[in-house]
Amino acid sequence: MPSRQALDARAVTLMGVLCAVWSLQQVVLKATAADIAPVMQIALRSGGAALLVALVMWWRGERMDWRDGSLPAGLIVGVLFALEFLLVAEGLRHTSASHMVVFLYTAPVFAALGLHWRLPAERLGALQWLGITLAFGGIAAAFLGRSTPISAPAGNTLWGDFLGLLAGMAWAATTVVVRSSVLARAAATQTLLYQLLGAFVLLLAGAWLSGQARFNPTPQVWASLAFHTLVVSFASFLVWFWLLRHYLASRLGVFSFLTPLFGIVFGAWLLQEPIEPRFLLAAVPVLLGIVLVSGAGWLEQWWRRVATTTSTTGVVRRTPAQTPPAAAPDR
Asked: What is the pLDDT of residues 181-211, one digit of tens each?
């Protein structure tokens, strides 16, 4: 297999598009919630996407290999994937799409902690610990000081935010199980199919049992289902796996912060959600923490290259009495 490349213009463009698409999930779910409950919509999109993934596997000559020992781990990630989106769907009934996408995308922070505990090769470095500290500080700032308790009834933004945070933890747990089990060696399509089938079966049952199986087939609902099934749950994940096969994962991970950033913008633009100064201030350290946790390896390599280049070009460290040249400020 060829070595993975550093990022080029194509990878940067694709990652920007993917982050925008992923951020729109919560916005579109919220926009169509009056005609189809989010939990029902996620169940239907997962079923449709599972069918498409199965067709791709058939076209490629792939098949689910039940003898590779991946079934127990596959069942676990299926349940966790369903739990994640159950929490997202329920959370969107109480909070804004912009809040949901920020708290959901704390997943890399929780995944880093889980992998640090599970895999010796995934031990956290100083930059990542700094990122985790910043992220948890931002999360605390977002929750502390609100007057309404977490256990308040429907309509409470705090409760929806808390569910979004739990969804991020469920997503992180899925990542930890995949990375530390037989699924780490399984085909990406097989792992994705486990997750989609789990979400379809469990969320469809949950929608019926909770009385959220309503389906009003408006043009907006059909457009939303097409977007979620074809673009989000099928095409975007195939593109993501293609990027992981061709580019360095640490470089791609740096873009994680763009999804919640796009989510805030799209929520305000498309749903007229208010942009609260307090929430924005809390989101800044969360986003910075995500960047440090996801891109610590790349940032350290970049800094070493800068230091090496500086030392080999003969640039010396100036004393306080010296004046730096305007074109080359001191670092």
From this structure: 888 888 888 889 999 999 999 999 999 999 9
Checking if the pLDDT of 1 tops 50, the result is no
Both tokens of residue 9?
Answer: 């213009």
Report the C-alpha gap between 145 and 254 in whole angstroms.
Answer: 31
Q: How many CB atoms lie within 10 A of CB 73?
A: 19
Question: Is 74 contained in some domain?
Answer: yes
State which residues form the domain around 111. 9-311
DSSP string, 96-141: -HHHHHHHHTTHHHHHHHHHHHH-GGG---HHHHHHHHHHHHHHHH
Tokens 């463009």 correspond to: 13
* Cα(197)–Cα(177) distance, integer angstroms: 17
Give how many domains the chain has, as a whole number: 1
pTM of the model: 0.83
Alpha-carbon distance 44 to 95, whole Å? 22
- What single-letter amino acid sits at 156? N
Contact 32, 220 (CB under 8 A): yes
Asked if the structure places residue 260 within a domain, the reply is yes
CA atoms within 13 A on the CB side of 151: 0
Is residue 160 domain-resident? Answer: yes
Q: What is the pLDDT of residue 25?
A: 92
Residue 247 sits at φ, ψ, to 5 deg, of -130, 160
323 within some domain = no
> In terms of DSSP H, where are the helices of the chain?
9-31, 38-60, 71-91, 97-104, 107-118, 126-143, 157-179, 188-209, 219-226, 237-246, 249-253, 258-270, 277-312
